[in-house]
C-alpha cells in the first residue's frame, strides 16, 4: 500500500516529467520532479510510469472460459484467475468484464458462459485474491425475447458499471447488409438456412426490440448506470442515443456516426485491435482515421488485452499525438466516462494505480503494475543486468 517510485518518466494528464511518485495507504501522496533520495525507492531507470489502464470492454474472460469453440474449461475460478493475471500483465488495473446477455443461434451456450463467468467472478472476489479491480459490463442483446429474464437478476449487482445495448439482427446496424452478417458469423449456412434464420430473427426483433430497449434504458437511468450504444452506424442511431440520454457510443462503424456523436458530446469508444492492425477486422471504419479526425475518446482492448498500450503508443507515433493525450484514452477518459473519478491519472489524491512501460525496439512492454500502491507482478532485473 506504500511505495516510492523514482527516476521515472511520469506521464501526467498534460505533460511528461522526470521524477518520483510517493504512494501512502494506496493513494498517491505526491508527484515530484527531479531526483529522489528516498531509501528503498523503486528505481525505474528512466522507464515510463503511466496511470493504470481502465478497460471498459474485454471479452477475455469468455475466452478463458471457452478457449476453443464448444470447449469449456472445467474450473471457472481458474479461468477467472487466469483472466485477472492477463489483465494485470497488460497494465489493466480496472477492468469491466464484458458478459453477453442473449442467445440466438448459439443455443444454450451463451447462457452457460454467462453463468460460469458471473459465478467465477463472484467467487474470485470473495477470496480477495484478484489483482485488478473487476467491475461488470452487461452487453444486452435487446432483440432477444429472453434478455429481460437474464438481465433482471443482475441489475442491482454492486459492481455493475456499464450496460451496452446491442442488436445483431440481420439488417440492423453494422449488418444492414445481411451478407455481412453471414460472413461475420461463418456458420456455413446454406442459402435456404440463412434465409430461414434471418426471417425468424427479423420477426422476433420486430416483436420485442423496441420495448425491451426502452425497459433496459429506464432501469439503468433509475439506478444511474451508464449506458453505451453498440455499433452505431447511421445518424439516426446517434440521434436515438441522444434522445435516450446514452453517454457512450461503443464501436461506431462509420465516420458519419462518430462525427455526430462528437457533436452530441457522446464518448466515442474504439477497439485497440483496430488501431494495432490498421483497420477493422469486419470492414468498419478505421480507428486510426477517427483518432486523426479527433473522433476517438477511449480505446478498448476488446479481444486483445495488450492492444491498449500498443494502440496508445501507435497513435502517439503515427499521428504525432502527444503521449499524454494517447494515454488518457486508456486511463482517465474511460474512468471518467463511467464515473470512476478516483483513478486514471498520476495525481495526488487518486488511487495508486500505475504501470511501468519500457520501449523495446519501439514495442511498449509492460514490465510492472501497481494497484493501490501494491506491486501486482514480480520484480524485473535492472537494465544493467538484462
Automatic annotation (TrEMBL):
Keywords: Lyase. Residues 126-356 form the Amidohydrolase domain. The keyword Membrane does not apply. InterPro entries: Amidohydro_3, Metal-dep_hydrolase_composite, Metal_Hydrolase, Metallo-dep_Hydrolase, PhnM. GO terms for molecular function: hydrolase activity, acting on carbon-nitrogen (but not peptide) bonds; lyase activity. GO terms for biological process: organic phosphonate catabolic process. Pfam families: Amidohydro_3. This is Carbon-phosphorus lyase complex subunit. It comes from Pseudodesulfovibrio profundus.
